[in-house]
Amino acid sequence: MMTFYNEMLEGDRVRDPYARLSEWVETMPQDFRQMKQAEAEDLFRRIGITFAVYGEGGDPDRLIPFDMMPRVFEQAEWRKLERGIKQRARALNAFLRDVYGRGEIIRAGRIPARLVYRNEAYEKAVVGFVPPRGVYSHIIGVDLVRTAKDEFYVLEDNCRTPSGVSYMLENREIMMRMFPQLFRQNRIEPVDQYPQLLRHTLESVAPQKCDSRPTCVILTPGHYNSAYYEHSFLANLMGVELVEGADLFVDGEFVYMRTTQGPKRVDVIYRRIDDPFLDPLCFRPDSMLGIPGLMDVYRSGGVSICSAPGAGVADDKAIYTFVPEMVRFYLGEEPILNNVQTWTLWKDDDYRYVMDNLPDLVVKEVHGSGGYGMLVGPKSTREEVEIFRKKIEANPSNYIAQPTLSLSTCPTFVEEGVAPRHVDLRPYCLCGDRIELVPGGLTRVALREGSLVVNSSQGGGVKDTWVLSE
Fold it and tell me: How far apart are CA 462 and CA 454, in angstroms?
């Protein structure tokens, strides 16, 4: 039977970071807790914090479940995570510079060429082009899990358009509004500087032809997108325009935004749409979301796109297995944060092992996301395992497998009181003229008892993440 690290308890003793919270919970009457939970839901509803689940009929917008019990990290724990995340961000950007250039890591035999050059996320349209400051992935969301007091593992790297930062900020805002006394009693590092840091990051990678303070915009697919709330939220906090493809056009060497005062030049586009839809003249010709001619302006140094087209090849789940090797190859360092052990099913030995042990493993699609396209063996029926087995047999290279991790638990408010639930963490690393991340991140929690799947689309919720000051 699996044992799980409880982040609040050490034996029968409450760990120091949770000491004041433990007292707070014990003295909270149940009716007061229920009143505050309803207040939190009302705040989320009034603010409009929703997410969409694609494939459901009718209006898919939902309130994301919010747990009022914060997750707490000591300063020393956070410093280790911060060093490891920054190290990983440097290595991933070095990898992207390399594979769109000379491909030294492939020449050295450290990564198979076909995993990169035949990858659907590898964009030939940007081969040989180096974006400003050599940064390809400007916002990296690193998904982390904890298995013991000093053991953290990276589940995956999100190098394209990682979402969820609005929840990180709003979770904190709502907790401060509802429980100000907690913030007087605990010295908690702030996260509210994230929008300013993001804007600085975008401005720091302005294109070569920009000769004044850069004009930045957020490019959204529109209000039907599942993360539209976040797009508008960040645009408002950063003081930049939220635009759709139809609001922008190319004229000569530059991109312009339509305004009531006439065209205004745009220097940096923080895009929240996928590569294939960016430019119908370069990628999908049927795209109604992008800007015709955008890629020509980008490659000529007239506009910056964040994150860069083609950055997705670095967060492919097959490439993920090689990130520790990237750290060694490009930085000459040992990885601070470890990967989860991973079997790649295009290798014969790995394939045989996985097929022999399928009921005990977690299997994921190489390009899957959101908790879809995966098998959690120990939580699946025999029939579900066999159905997935046939999928793997039909296309082994489309899958990777990992052991079922003993994810740590955090105290969580449930119907009967407080109970441990499994969590993960997504900090957001910003890469521009410097690499920065705010002390905290998005903690996702599996609200169903025994569940290891934390995605909101699969019944998970969110909670505030505290990093205590020294």
Answer: 9
The one-letter amino acid code at 459 reads G
pLDDT for 59 equals 46
* Residues 446 and 433: beta-carbon distance below 8 Å: no
Name the token pair of 467.
């990093």
| Alpha-carbon gap, residue 292 to 249, rounded angstroms | 7
Q: Which residues contact 171 (CB under 8 A, 6 or more apart)?
A: 66, 442, 462, 463, 464, 465
- Kindly state the average pLDDT of the residues 335-349: 93
Give 124's DSSP letter.
Answer: G
Name the nearest CA neighbour of 426 among 151, 229, 145. 145
Coil/strand/helix, residue 233: helix
Q: How far apart are CA 247 and CA 239, in angstroms?
A: 17
Q: Is the pLDDT of residue 57 over 70?
A: no
φ and ψ of 43, to 5 deg:
-65, -45
Q: Are 249 and 258 in contact (CB under 8 A)?
A: yes
Q: Are 373 and 365 in contact (CB under 8 A)?
A: yes
55: left (phi over 0), alpha (psi -120 to 50) or beta: left
369 has which bridge partners? none
pLDDT at 460: 84
Give the pLDDT score at 261: 94
SS3 at position 140: strand
Residue 203 to residue 213: CA distance in whole angstroms: 8
Report DSSP letters for 378-415, one per residue: GGS-HHHHHHHHHHHHH-GGGEEEEE-----EEEEEET
DSSP 186: S
Spatial strand order of the sheet with 254-257 comes to: 248-251, 254-257, 264-266
Under DSSP, the state recorded for 170 is H
Q: What is the DSSP letter of 447?
A: -
Where would I find the H helices in 179-322?
180-185, 194-204, 228-238, 294-299, 317-320
pLDDT of residue 51: 57
Distance CA 214, CA 306 (A): 13
From CA 380, how far away is CA 375, in angstroms rounded? 7
Mean pLDDT of the chain: 92
Q: Which residue is listed with tokens 């804007």?
A: 199
Rounded Cα distance, 291 and 280, in Å? 7
